[in-house]
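Journal club side-thread
Mid-discussion, someone asked how the predicted structure for our own chain would compare to the paper's figures. Pasting it here so we can look after the session.
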Amino acid sequence: MPRTKGAENKNKKEKPQKDKDAPKKGKSAFFFFLASNLDELKKKSPSLAHKEAVSELSKEWKKLSTTGKKSYIDLANKEKERFQKEKEVYQAKKQRENEGGNSVHEKRIAKKGVENEPKVVKKEKVQHHQQVFLNEIYVSLLKDLVE
């Protein structure tokens, strides 16, 4: 007996509705690889269907060494960390809503994100400070040698 569109299947369980405010999970390393190489592959062979292109890239991914995969794995790990932070903030917000707690401190955490997020220092700035420090040492050594 053929199924009709409007008929409900009694054996199927209903899926719980997803919360639209919940943070999205991060991409895997393969998806970062796919995103960076798919356009290039499509330009090389435009007649290739999307499914075939993804299949080709999947084969390339399997052949790739761990050193070749490292940059994509690093991106995936950063994405995973971002998701964990957002998830913690989201769960804390949900818990507060359920309990009704809204202290000023909690509002700041919800607004800014994680409570004590470490300050990010740019690599160039660190290298500049290291170079200045080394120059100061070099100058002081030269002064000692002259005296």
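Post-session note: Residues 66-99 form the longest helix (34 residues).
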